[in-house]
Amino acid sequence: MKRFVIFCTGAFIAGLSFSLLSAADEKPKMTIKEVMKNHKDKLNEKFEKGEATKEEKAKLLEGYEALAKNKPPKGDEKDWKAKTDALVKAVKDDDKAAYKKAVNCAACHKDHKPA
Ligand code: HEC
Questions:
Q1: What is residue 115's predicted lDDT score, i.e. its pLDDT?
Q2: Of all protein residues, whose CA lies closest to atom 22 belonging to ligand 1?
Q3: How far is CA 5 from the centre of its chain?
Q4: Are 69 and 26 in contact (CB under 8 A)?
Q5: Using one digit for the tens of pLDDT, what is the confidence trace for 54-76?
Q6: Rounded CA gap, 62 and 96, in Å?
Q7: Does the Cβ of 44 fall within 6 Å of ligand 1?
Q8: What does R_g of the chain's alpha carbons equal in angstroms?
Q9: How far is CA 30 from CA 21, 52, 63, 70, 73, in A?
Q10: Does the Cβ of 32 fall within 6 Å of ligand 1?
């Protein structure tokens, strides 16, 4: 019986670390360039003006969540995480002022967009 318990604990831990690992390894749904299409489509401007529909907000949120999972092609990963998390949070909270600050194209491109 004791052996069985040890075996089960081991299997549980192995399963748990496996699921943790695969969560961290989860592939982003979109590439950075794909997410930038939302900006080309002016969804960001609509959001700032409060004109984005529910679907458009969902699209922005999905995009920024994918953005946060991507690795930046350039620059510091911690800074990237802070910038992308701020975008996710602003859209989630429907906070236009926070979004305006977070979606600063030039600031992010300067740090993270390869020339
Ligand atoms: C959180 C960071 C971040 C913000 C904010 C951001 N971008 Fe980007 N953008 C990037 C990165 C990184 C790339 C480079 C992607 C690559 O080369 O893989 C990029 C690339 C682009 C591209 C080129 C895409 C392509 O197909 O080559 C366009 C256009 C673009 N951004 C538009 C915008 C606009 C407009 C805004 C502001 C409304 C904006 N971006 C805000 C990070 C950001």
A1: 87
A2: 36
A3: 40
A4: yes
A5: 999 999 999 999 999 999 999 99
A6: 17
A7: yes
A8: 19
A9: 20, 21, 7, 8, 14
A10: yes
Residue nearest to atom 14 of ligand 1 (CA): 113
C-beta atoms surrounding 64 within 10 Å:
26
- Selection from 106, 23, 99 nearest residue 56 by Cα: 99
Backbone phi, psi, residue 104, to 5°: -60, 100
Q: Which residues of the chain have pLDDT under 50?
A: 8
Q: Tell me the backbone φ, ψ of residue 112, rounded to 5 degrees.
A: -125, -10
Separation between Cα atoms, residue 27 and residue 66, nearest integer Å: 9
Q: CB–CB of 99/88 below 8 Å?
A: no
Pocket of ligand 1 contains residue 106 by CB under 6 Å: no
Q: What is the signed CA dihedral for 66, 32, 108, 79, rounded to 10 degrees?
A: 50
